[in-house]
Amino acid sequence: MSDAIRGTAHGDSPVPLSVLDLVTVGSGRTAGQALATSVEISKLAERRGYHRHWVAEHHSMPGVASSSPAVILAHLAAHTRRIRLGSGGVMLPNHAPLVIAEQFGTLEALAPGRVDLGLGRAPGTDGATAAALRRTRTLNEGAEDFPQQLAELTRFLDDDFPDGHPYARIHAVPGPVQGPSGRPPVWLLGSSGFSARLAGTLGLPFAFAHHFSAQNTIPALDLYRDSFRPSQVLDAPYALIGVAALAHEAPKEARRQVMTGALSMLRLRTGRPGLVPTPEEAEAYPFSPTERDFVDSWLANIVHGTPDEVRTGLDDLRKRTGADELMITANAHGGDVRLRSYELIADAYGMPDDGVPAE
């Protein structure tokens, strides 16, 4: 299964580059337009040699239209041929493991050999929305529940509950009970040390959310590598990091565009989530000193500027972290800006354009 995990770098990039998509909805835009942009990003990414396109599960956030990753991934699969598609991630505590096994078994049947199942243990939203999702006021995300849920999901994916287990006669369909078939590789996602250690202990690939937890990146990757035990999945650690990056021909315009994402995050963190603001809205916003400090801190971890500046920033980040893959999220108000950024980054690394349009 390691071939399904380890990607191939293209052009001058030292590691594979991939895409993390939040399906962002800008002010004045619709969810339908955001989803159409995701299709275009996936087609562009496939054409330029990005390794995978992941969609992240979020809920009750007006500026994000990715509440149903499996639905979106099925749509992307219909418009692409080769690029790996996956969840970055599905939030396991929000769902019954059997449901996830069925959804991703279906995706594997639709796009054989190119589906990833990335799993997180956070709710992907606030506590009240998490309670609505889980139908309980007791939100369990501790060390006991997540590994148990993960083990149950893995057994459904492999159809190998032992005799005498209450679920021994239950099968995730589509799945192995129907005959020999592949199944999506499981990744663990994290923004702290918990999933890093668990991924290492289980010998699974690990994805770290550097784009919103940069201070924890190197400690978590060190913990993952130190904890790693070879498995049937991997004989050595494999870690990717999510990184926010946006390239533009004009560096001032790059700064102007990433300010929209920074203001959107400020509003989210202060309990005022909304659509991603326009650059004009971000320029006119009256930041307080405290808000300005937050925005400056947030922007410090976004690689932005000219294509060459972004390439240098990504290369420096890879060297500092030793990441095996960089998964780029380009957050801005306009879909055209995001598309252009992925194109410019590919150009900066000399990634070939195969010129073959996706279906």
Radius of gyration: 20 Å
Give the H and E element order. Answer: HEHEHEHEHHEHEHEHHHEHEH
Structural class: alpha/beta
The proportion of residues forming helix, as a percent range, comes to 40-55%
Q: Kindly state the mean pLDDT as a whole number?
A: 93
List the strand order in the largest sheet: 1-2-3-4-5-6-7-9
Proportion of residues in β-strands: 5-15%
How would you characterize the largest beta sheet? 8 strands, parallel, barrel
Distance between the termini: 27 Å
Query: Which of globular, elongated, flat, extended, rod-shaped describes the shape?
Result: globular
Helical segment count: 13
Low-confidence segments, given as residue ranges, are none
Q: What is the tally of beta strands?
A: 9
Q: What would you say this structure looks like, in words?
A:
By secondary structure, the chain is α/β, with parallel strands linked by helices. It has 13 helices and nine strands. The chain has helices at 2-5, 31-48, 69-79, 97-110, 127-134, 145-158, 193-202, 217-227, 251-269, 279-284, 289-299, 307-321, 335-348, and strands spanning 17-21, 52-55, 84-91, 115-120, 186-190, 206-208, 239-247, 303-305, 325-329.
